[in-house]
Amino acid sequence: MELVRETIVLNKHIGREMTQILLEGDIIVPDTKPDISSILKTDAQIVIPKVNPMAGRISYSGKLVIKILYMARDGENTVHSISTFAPVDDFLNMEGVGVNTLINFNVRIAHIDYRVVNDRKLNYRAVVDVVVTVSENASADVVKAIADLPLTQQKTAALSLNNNVAKKFDEFTIKDEIVMPDNKPAVGEMLSVSMAITGKEVRVGAGHVDISGALTVMPLYRGDAEGSIVELTEFELPFSGAIDVAAAQDGNFGDVVLSVLESDVSVQPDEEGENRILAIEAIIGADIRVTDNNMLTVLDDAYCIDQNLDIKRVTLEYQNMVCRNTNQFNVKEAVKLEDAPEMLQILSVDGVAHLEDKKVIDDKVVVEGVVMANILYVANSDVTPLYSYQAALPIRQVVETKGARLGMDADVEQAIDRISFNMLAGDEVELRFALNVDVLVQEDVQTTYISDIEFSPLNSEEVNQMPSMVVLCTQKGDSLWSIAKKYNASLEELAAINELDSGAELVAGQKLLVVKKVAGEEI
């Protein structure tokens, strides 16, 4: 008899490693900038665009970008900014890694400290979490069916397969010009420009992955008008496009992490000669992973009335996707200022979401963490006309994940999509962060599949020793199919003799009459 085979490809989990790296150094105030009086605000971002697997190790490189806003010691309380970066070049030893393994590489700044050494020098010390998950595509030849063998003598099972279709890192550029609103002064000095990607949408098609969203640009600058302290405005630059991914197909899942790798902002005069035009150029990195999940029917067991079947089985270990869900919710809290000057006007609010814990329970994933918010405002103080206040907003969200069970693994990605605020009083502000949470629940599965079957003639002595007719009392777990196999009987005739449907379920203690068959003849 001919075996019907199929080669399957699935995602095999190799390992997961977590480590920390320490980055530290000095920041020197450029000669063109005044001395530091006090630090108003600090921003830090780590970007790792290059991750290279090799035999037994993973090398990675990128940079830590630091931006500092400070009050000058110039007698006029002017605001200035410094930006610098520190290169990152490191590696991680990991058993099982090879040049063709698939790497999920995640980094985040766990903690960063700044210390003013003197009027012209600062010191920073950053602790960075590195989380690496490694997998590979494994192939196997499985038996789906036996040709020419009656279907009633074959038992099938469903095999859920999750495989990596493609892993790719690509870049695209957003270039545009924005004009300052009429109610805002022209630019005297650009202090900093924050950029964030919001409203991300991903769709996988044949040979490509479509990505759309918006680049939110927030310029912080000192106006050219006399007495201007700082001004902040916000723009959205929509983008959309397709990235070629040859192996992608309709119906695949696409996971895309977008990050701003490089940005450049130049101030240009308008037709009236005022610096009101900003030329924006941003290089966006797209870390793309395309996966496929499908159900395959394979042969689980079989028997033949006139032949012996020697079934070869192989144990298979792989990682199966249980559920994925994207949820958006609001983190909202009224923050009361403590040991800080009174607010006159809020200039900006930004924040970073930190995941602190995740728990997989039945059909749910509980996500806990904190949003570290930074409020920059005009203060009612001659000493500190600008002030930056930090607040921590707790996160606790339950994400529905059907099929999830205690002990399974969950990958959680969270990003702030929108920020809004409302000043309630001089010492109180309501903050609202719209948070996107992407949850992928997977489980390590161990199963067996039939890799081969050898056929041989029946042993006539063994067959003859079997009774030609048996009345048995069923046990728990028995089925018509298992009894037919055990006694080399026809399933249809077994059901007909006992006046049952061939798919009927049996109960323990039920009595059945079984008639043996060999080569189509009753014995």
Question: What letter string, H or E per element, gives the SSE order?
Answer: EEEEEEEEEEEEEEEEEEEHEHHEEE
Count of folded domains: 4
What's the helix count? 3
Structural class: mainly beta
DSSP E strands, number: 23
What portion of the residues fall into strands of 2 or more residues?
over 45%
Major sheet details: 4 strands, antiparallel
Percentage of helical residues?
under 10%
The CA-CA distance between the termini, in Å, is 24 Å
Compute the average pLDDT: 89
Characteristic key phrases:
single chain; mainly beta; three-stranded antiparallel β-sheet; 3 helices; 72% strand; disordered C terminus
Account of the protein in words:
The chain is mostly beta strands. The chain folds into four domains: 11-137, no CATH class; 149-305, no CATH class; 320-445, no CATH class; 460-522, LysM domain (Membrane-bound Lytic Murein Transglycosylase D, Chain A), CATH 3.10.350.10. The chain is built from three helices and 23 strands. Strands 8, 9, 10 and 11 form a four-stranded antiparallel sheet that branches. A hairpin with a 7-residue loop joins β9 (208-223) and β10 (231-232). The protein starts with a strand and ends with a strand. The model is unreliable at 519-523 (pLDDT under 50).
Summarize this entry quickly:
This protein has helices at 460-465, 480-486, 491-497, and strands at 3-28, 36-54, 57-72, 79-93, 102-118, 121-146, 154-179, 187-205, 208-223, 231-232, 235-244, 253-269, 275-302, 307-336, 343-361, 364-379, 386-400, 409-425, 428-457, 469-473, 511-515, 517-518, 521-522. The chain is mainly beta and 523 residues long.
